[in-house]
Design a protein that fits this description.
seven-stranded antiparallel β-sheet; four-stranded antiparallel β-sheet; elongated; Bacteriophage T5 Orf172 DNA-binding domain-containing protein; Phage_T5_Orf172_DNA-bd
């Protein structure tokens, strides 16, 4: 048998020995395509084109600038025709963004697009084709997406905002305490962020432990970024803050305060008003108050006072407490049931519109449960879920 040369041997083995065709595209065209593919991936993930704006993710801002520049390139329609199924090139640039007027020394330098945009033939306009390290960083940061069950979390954000406004929560600079746990609240990029879930511990490339988080934002989006990524973002954000636990002050204690009462009563009232809304929901609408005297005296003449809906009331529950601070106790109920406060306007005896406070659309058994939490000091560990009409603990939120 005659000895075969290398080509004949490879051919006998079924290996194609035809020389590889070299790419007919220039480096510039390859970079344009690579840059556009990143934008396509963003579109596939989010179902929209990337947008400009300081509230946007750094990579979305990059893609928005890049797309604007690609649209200006005369060869782009022909070069990218086979890739542009969504029609991104035919869309107009975002009306709110004048790319050429942007601060190139800050935003564009940060995005890595180049030092100037005047020379449209300069491929550095699209030079930010991310390295492996940058791609890994993007994966760590994670893109934000709409939160499908945001209705579960919206009452929590509303409650936290009320607590911040009332001074019950404090916002501390992130760093002194860099821990991140489920149930923590932060301010990141000017937005409230809530850590809803923490996944299983994983090993980061540097050998340190990490975990995926489910972070919900007050604007109705969420992300699954890594814990260390959130820590880095909070460190870098000069306005990044950790929100402390609500501090409502001592309800019971030995030290006397101006609004303390030695023995007090929490009372729960039900209105006898004939107002259509009240009549329809009478079994659920309750007024919660605190008095240091007799409840009967407190509610005398209720039918003449707008705060009692200009109608008689019936006492459905009372709770005796000792050495309590009346203002803090009333604030607790407003914090806990604020989202369930009824929005009702009536006219007082003089025809003036009045919006009575302290009336809540809350079942009586939930109020009773809240009082028990006040007595054992665990009231700050629960929140009222408007959808299910029950108190939830930190682990159930």
């Amino acid at each position: 048998m005659a000895e075969m040369n290398d080509d004949e041997l490879l051919d006998a083995l079924g290996v194609d020995v035809a020389p590889m065709k070299s790419s007919s595209r220039t480096p510039r065209e390859e970079r344009i395509i690579a840059g556009f593919e990143d934008i396509l991936r963003f579109h596939q993930t989010h179902g929209r084109t990337p947008l400009h704006g300081e509230d946007r993710d750094i990579f979305e801002r990059l893609y928005a600038v890049r797309l604007d520049q690609i649209r200006k390139l005369p060869e782009a329609p022909t070069l990218l025709a086979g890739l542009d199924a969504p029609g991104l090139l035919s869309g107009a640039a975002a009306a709110s963004a004048d790319v050429d007027a942007m601060d190139e020394d800050t935003l564009l330098a940060e995005l890595g697009i180049g030092d100037g945009l005047a020379d449209q033939d300069d491929v550095t306009v699209l030079r930010h084709v991310r390295s492996h390290v940058e791609k890994r960083a993007a994966e760590e940061v994670a893109e934000r997406m709409p939160c499908p069950d945001f209705d579960r979390f919206q009452p929590l954000f509303e409650q936290v905002e009320r607590e911040l406004n009332a001074g019950y929560r404090t916002a501390q600079r992130f760093g002194r305490n860099a821990s991140i746990a489920s149930g923590d609240y932060f301010i990141l990029g000017g937005q409230l962020a809530y850590v809803a879930e923490i996944g299983e511990t994983i090993r980061a490339p540097n050998g340190e432990s990490d975990a995926r988080l489910r972070v919900i934002y007050a604007n109705g989006t969420e992300s699954n970024l890594l814990r260390r990524s959130l820590q880095r973002a909070l460190y870098k954000d000069e306005t990044g803050r950790r929100l402390g636990e609500p501090d409502l002050g001592p309800l019971f204690g030995d030290a006397s305060e101006p609004d303390d009462i030695e023995t007090g009563t929490i009372y729960v009232l039900r209105s006898l008003s004939s107002h259509p809304f009240v009549a329809e929901h009478r079994e659920l609408i309750h007024k919660i108050g605190v008095t240091g005297g007799k409840v009967e005296t407190r509610i005398a003449g209720a039918e003449k006072e707008a705060t009692y809906l200009l109608a008689g009331v019936e006492v459905v529950a009372t709770y005796k407490l000792h050495n309590l601070n009346r203002t803090r106790l009333e604030n607790i109920f407003h914090r806990l049931f604020g989202a369930a406060q009824i929005d009702l306007t009536i006219e007082d005896r003089f025809g003036h519109p009045v919006k009575p406070r302290e009336w809540f659309l809350v079942p009586l058994h939930v109020i009773d449960e809240a009082v028990q939490h006040i007595r054992d000091g665990s009231i700050t560990d629960v929140v009222y879920d408007l959808k299910s009409a029950r108190l939830l603990g930190q682990t159930q939120k």
